[in-house]
Amino acid sequence: MVYEKPEHFLMTSRPRDIAKDHLVDFKLIVTAYLFIGLIQASIAYSNFFLYYWLEGGLSPSQILFKFDDSHLDLQSQARTLYFYALVVCQFGNVLTSRTFRVSTFEQNPLWGPKQNRRIFLAMLVSCAFVVLVLYIPFFQTNLNVSPLPTAHWQVLVLPWVGALLLMLANESRKYWIRSFPDGHVASLAVQ
Predict the structure, then answer these.
(1) Between vectors from CA 3 to CA 118 and to CA 119, what angle results, nearest 5°?
(2) Quick one: CA torsion of 51, 129, 160, 163, rounded to 10 degrees?
(3) Which of 3, 36, 51, 191 is least enclosed, having the fewest CB within 10 Å?
(4) In which region does residue 13 sit, left (phi positive, over 0), alpha (psi from -120 to 50) or beta (all else)?
(5) For the whole model, what pTM was predicted?
(6) Side-chain-side CA neighbours of residue 57 (13 Å)
(7) What is the 3-state secondary structure of 26-82?
(8) Is residue 99 within 8 Å of 174, Cβ to Cβ?
(9) What is the tens place of the pLDDT at every residue in 18-51?
C-alpha cells in the first residue's frame, strides 16, 4: 500500500492540522472496523459455522458457548476455514481499499498511470503464510489448526464470493460519496 499513487483530488484537500488532526481518526475507525471489518468478520464466521453444519450437522446454537472437548477435530478444521476466509477477504479489501473516494476501476492496479502490481506480490506472500501456517507441523501443533479441508466446495468458494461482495459494497460506498459529497456517508468518509 505504500507504493500507491495518490488519488487525483489529493492536492485540492486542505492540509492536515498536526495539532488536532490525527492520522487514525474516528472516520478511519468507522470505515475499517464498522464497515469493512464487520463484512469480513461476517464472512469468516459464516464460513466457520457453515462447515460445522455441513460436516457435523451442528447449528450455531448447538456450539456457541459450549466449552467441552467434543468435536475437537471439527473445531480445528472450522478454525482453519475461518482463517482461510479472513485471508481471502483481505484480498478483496486490499484491492478496494487502495483509494478512499476514487473507484478501484479508475485507479486500476494492473495498468495505467496509477498501477501498483506490487499488491499482487503482497497477496502471494499472504498465500505463502497461509500455506506455512496450515501445512507446517510446528504451526499446526501450536496453533491447533489442520490442513485446509476440501470435502465441501461451499466453504472454499464462500470467502471468494464474500471478497467480491466486500469490493462491491466498498465501491458502492465510494460511488455514494462521489455522488453526494455533502451527505451523511461522505461526512463519515476518510478524506
Answers:
(1) 25
(2) 110
(3) 3
(4) beta
(5) 0.83
(6) 0
(7) HHHHHHHHHHHHHHHHHHHHHHHHHHHHHHHCCCHHHHCCCCCCCCHHHHHHHHHHH
(8) yes
(9) 777 777 778 788 888 888 999 999 999 999 999 9
